[in-house]
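Fig. S4 source data, part A: sequence.
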Amino acid sequence: MEEPLKLLHTVVQAIHPLDAGDWDALSRIWKPYSARRKEIISVPGETERFLYFVTDGVQRIYYLDDQNREATLAFTYRPSFGGIIDSVLLEVPSRYYYETLTPSEFIRAPYAEFKAVANERPAVERMIRAGITQTLSGILERLVEVQCFSSEDKFRNLLKRSPHILQLVPHKYLANYLGIDPTNFSKLVNKVRI
């Protein structure tokens, strides 16, 4: 458990530095959690009760409409927070699936315990607010890409943001994430060089 907490500490300190007391209170609530490949961790209709921090593996968040069409919304992998964050923080049923694409390792914290720490420790609350603000900024950038960019520009931006993503995530999910036909995605993989 020591290594995952060190990794979490590095990420937390980059978002919003915590002093030793705040970090100690936050670090005590995390426990190891493992999931097999293609395991659904969160499902629509159920309220997510945990905050996840990914220490190994690749996961995706996706939406499934009433006609069984999938929309891949996000990928998570080491070292990042994961899970259905709006369900956790708003304490409402999820509208999305959180699925492992590979065998995955996490540390996770029950939201009730996290909330108690954040209420007692204002720096922890500021850290989560700063992290959510960074995430929201990324989501807004992604909305612009989805609505305004060509397929090739979406692909180029993805590779600039995450150059290793082609090796981590099956291409069919990347094509879905970008809103590109899988055949055209394959052509872009062979054509575009970054």
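Fig. S4 source data, part B ends here. The longest helix spans residues 122-148.
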